[in-house]
Amino acid sequence: MSNRPDASRRAFLRLASLMSVAGSAGAPFALNLATIGAAAAQTSSPDYRAIVCLFMNGGNDHANTVLATDPTSWNTYTTVRTTSEAGSIALPGPSAAGGVLPIAPLTAQAGREFALHPQLGPLKDLFDAGRAAIVANVGPLLAPTTRAQYRAASVPLPPKLFSHNDQQSTWQAGRPEGASSGWGGRMGDLVAAANGNPIFTCISASGNAVFVSGQSVQQYQVSSAGAVAIGRLTGSLFGSSAAGNPLQAIVSGSRSHLFEKEHAAVVKRSIDAQAILASAMLPAGTGGVANPTQYTNPNTGTPANNGLATQLQTVARMVGARGGLGARRQVFFVSLGGFDTHDNQRTAHADLMARLAHAISYFDSALATLPGGDMRSQVTLFTASDFGRTFTSNGDGTDHGWGAHHFVVGGAVKGRDLYGTFPVTGLGHERDVGSGSLLPEISVDQYGATLAAWFGLSDGQIADVFPNLGNFAARNLGFMR
Q1: Segments in 383-458 forming alpha helices (H)
Q2: Interior angle at CA 251, CA 250 and CA 254, nearest 5
Q3: How far is it, in rounded angstroms, from Cα 228 to Cα 317?
Q4: Contact 480/450 with Cβ under 8 angstroms?
Q5: Roughly what angle, to the nearest 10 degrees, separates helices 258-280 and 5-19?
Q6: How would you classify the pairing of strands 101-103 and 202-204?
Q7: 407-466 pLDDT, tens per residue?
Q8: Ranges of the chain with pLDDT below 50
């Protein structure tokens, strides 16, 4: 850290903001929408838009999520992924009971046929209905890269490939672990001024996430119970119902010392924001956003609660509160863990796919039935993960990879299609950098920039959010309307 007092002060205030689950409201640029004004931001608007990052922590096995099933591809798939009967990670074919689920993308890829994991039935329904698309072989890149260039290190490569923490950060922020702002948060910096309450611009329903941290806008963390309140400001404190008011005066009252004054101001904003959200946020269940049903664990056949669906219910409740919050543009983050399937993959991954599909389908139905109208065309969900995994098996699992296939879901998505060139199935092809780990064809910057354009950012603003985008020919992948 710099020895300059102002640098130390900024670092302190940043930490204080994070600790209080609140943040500054400034934004250095205006949103590129002429119709947005401060007064209009106080009410719900038809030009409201939100993006939701669904992060699969651990590295999702893309090769068992979206599969090529034409005869040549399928023969290679079963040959490589079938090991011992107990440890095999190969899935049953489309014609088998409980086999992979065929899909028919609108844009043909010569000689290729495709399917989804057997537990992605609800997501297949969204795909078939035109509200979900697949983007093939996405991953962090600094510039277009061939296998020869990768091996020779003749082009710049993302640092610390194959490392969980670093690649989670690289996907979310464009830099390895230690990054302070994510591309969702940097988008938030650009749109916060259009929101009546800028503190509700970037929101995580899954704890701290660099994706929704901006350079000026801080993430606002919520739980299924709503805003995280400071304890004991209401109710009983040390047996006294009247002690809350003095405590609030202590933690948020005016001070003469610079650090104390700013900390008290941050705490007061946190208290005020919690009160606003508590009054505006739609309830869970009756009169608000329907509670998610349980999903069925495919390995046991028993119903169970789905934490990811609960996170997405929280997002839907905040979307439903957009008028009371004065929100015009919002960025959300949710997550599901358990994808580091080095062993027992076939069983573990089946349960993860079931939870993923159940939660996304629930979110689609919740947005369709929000009080005040169907919001599916104004909210877009996309998936992300640390990396894909190796095509080869380590016995009963897979190891860390690079590129992977991802889903984009919403009414504004040009659905029922597969974007990007689906890689050759197998080993030793031009995108294989070892053990079937995919060298990405599409960069995270291109993926995110396509969402940012739909979100309303200008070309110049998008270039600020994604500084490596200029290295790629295609700035927009075309999967958004």
Answers
A1: 444-455
A2: 75
A3: 15
A4: yes
A5: 30
A6: unpaired
A7: 999 999 999 999 999 999 999 999 999 999 999 999 999 999 999 999 999 999 999 999
A8: 1-44
Reading the block at residue 260, the tokens are 């104390």
Please tell me the distance from the alpha carbon of residue 400 to that of residue 386, in angstroms, as a whole number: 9
Helix intervals (H) in 49-120: 71-81
Q: What is the C-alpha to C-alpha distance for residues 138 and 438, in angstroms, rounded to an integer?
A: 9
Instruction: Return the H-helix or E-strand segment holding 316.
Output: helix 307-320
Q: Rounded to an integer, what distance in angstroms lies between the CA atom of residue 41 and that of residue 95? A: 53
Bridge partners (DSSP) listed for residue 22: none
Query: In the beta sheet, which residues pair with residue 333?
Result: 53, 204
Question: Can you spell out the DSSP letters for 332-388?
Answer: EEEEE-----SSSHHHHHHHHHHHHHHHHHHHHHHHHT-TTS--GGGEEEEEEES--
Best CA proximity match to 386, nearest among 176, 125, 200, 132: 176
Beta strands 418-419; 132-139: pairing state = parallel
C-alpha span between 389 and 437 (Å, rounded): 6
Whether the Cβ atoms of residue 47 and residue 33 lie closer than 8 Å to each other: yes
Q: Are the C-beta atoms of residues 227 and 273 closer than 8 Å to each other?
A: yes
Residues 304-319 as b or e (16 or more Cβ within 10 Å = b): eebbbbbbbbbbbbbb
All residues at 6 or more sequence positions from 107 whose CB lies less than 8 Å from its CB, including other chains = 417, 418
Residue 392 DSSP symbol: S
What's 168's DSSP letter? Answer: H
Q: Is the dihedral of CA 456, 357, 415, 430 positive or negative?
A: positive
Place of tokens 């606003």: 276
Nearest to 351 by CA among 307, 319, 311, 385: 307
How far is Cα 177 from Cα 14, in angstroms, rounded to an integer?
18
What residue ranges define each of the domains in the chain, with the CATH number in brackets? 24-224+297-471 (3.40.720), 232-283 (no CATH)
Closest CA to 328 of 29, 12, 47: 47
Assign 3-state DSSP to the chain and report helix, strand, coil percentages, each to 5. Answer: 35, 15, 50
320 and 374 in contact (C-beta within 8 Å)? no
Helix (H) or strand (E) segment spanning residue 139? strand 132-139
Q: What is the pLDDT of residue 227?
A: 77
- The DSSP symbol for 446 reads H
Kindly report the pTM of this predicted structure. Answer: 0.89
